[in-house]
Amino acid sequence: DGGITQSPKYLFRKEGQNVTLSCEQNLNHDAMYWYRQDPGQGLRLIYYSQIVNDFQKGDIAEGYSVSREKKESFPLTVTSAQKNPTAFYLCASSITTGDSGNTIYFGEGSWLTVV
Amino acid sequence: GDSVTQMEGPVTLSEEAFLTINCTYTATGYPSLFWYVQYPGEGLQLLLKATKADDKGSNKGFEATYRKETTSFHLEKGSVQVSDSAVYFCAPGGRALTFGSGTRLQVQP
């Protein structure tokens, strides 16, 4: 089945540690995104990538890093510089970015908790 | 930048009641407009979309009409079910979707 796979579903991080969230898609989409959702809140854009080897900061990129070495993969690293990382993280993809009416498809999300 | 204003929730309705969730947006030009739905603990799913003014998007009994003059994209359903309980997000298209805080819908039997 085609779709977006995020792993792990649940992750616990100690203070000062970096963690990486995986996102893989087999939809052959060029564009990929990372959003953060806090409880009872909307989604905020962290990073997005329009094409392999390219990515752009979103609205809340500080304390996060990404890479896009392969079309199907867009991992997100939450660094120790992110002071309040506990949240629900959603990866998404679409055929392209920009307002062409393309639907953005979401993964099932990853819960990150700082302990 | 783009922004969205949705009615605050939770919206609590009895089964078979009529639903309206208001959405207004500000954006450059006339972007496509989307409604997404999120069930507890899951990612977002596309519910419906409209790509130009006066278009009506529809799916699973939900409808929304792209109103350019009022910059609105209100979501409606004639008869809600318990299974419709979820959080609903309105979003204008662009480089990436811009989401508001969403509206939680609770449908009681």
Describe the structure.
The complex is a heterodimer of chains A (115) and B (109). Chain A is mostly beta strands. Helix content of chain A is 0%, strand content 49%. Chain A is built from no helices and 11 strands. Chain A has strands at residues 4-7, 10-13, 19-25, 31-37, 43-51, 54-57, 64-66, 76-78, 87-94, 105-106, 110-114. In chain A, strands 2, 4, 5, 6, 9, 10 and 11 form a 7-stranded mixed beta sheet that branches. A 4-stranded antiparallel beta sheet of chain A has the order 1-3-8-7, with no helix packed on it. In chain A, strand 5 (43-51) and strand 6 (54-57) form a beta hairpin. The radius of gyration of chain A is 13 Å and the shape is globular. The termini of chain A are far apart. Chain B is mainly beta and 109 residues long. In chain B, the strands form 3 sheets. In chain B, strands 2-11-10-5-6 form a 5-stranded mixed beta sheet, with no helix packed on it. Chain B has a 4-stranded antiparallel beta sheet with strand order 3-9-8-7, with no helix packed on it. Chain B starts with a strand and ends with a strand. The mean pLDDT of chain B is 92. Classes of the chains: A mainly beta (115), B mainly beta (109). The interface between A and B is medium-sized, with 27 and 25 residues.
Oligomer: heterodimer
Helix fraction bin of chain B: under 10%
Class from helix and strand fractions of chain B: mainly beta
Helix amount of chain A, in percent?
under 10%
Most residues in contact, chain pair and counts:
A-B, 27 and 25 residues
Number of helices of chain B: 0
- The gyration radius over C-alpha positions of chain B equals 13 Å
Mean pLDDT of chain A: 92
Largest sheet of chain B: 5 strands, mixed
Helix-strand string of chain B: EEEEEEEEEEE
| Large-scale geometry of chain B | globular
* Number of DSSP E strands of chain A: 11
Through-space gap between termini of chain A:
35 Å
Distance between the termini of chain B: 41 Å
Overall mean confidence score, pLDDT of chain B: 92
What percentage of amino acids of chain A are in beta strands? Answer: over 45%
User: Nearest-angstrom radius of gyration of chain A?
Assistant: 13 Å
How many individual β-strands of chain B?
11
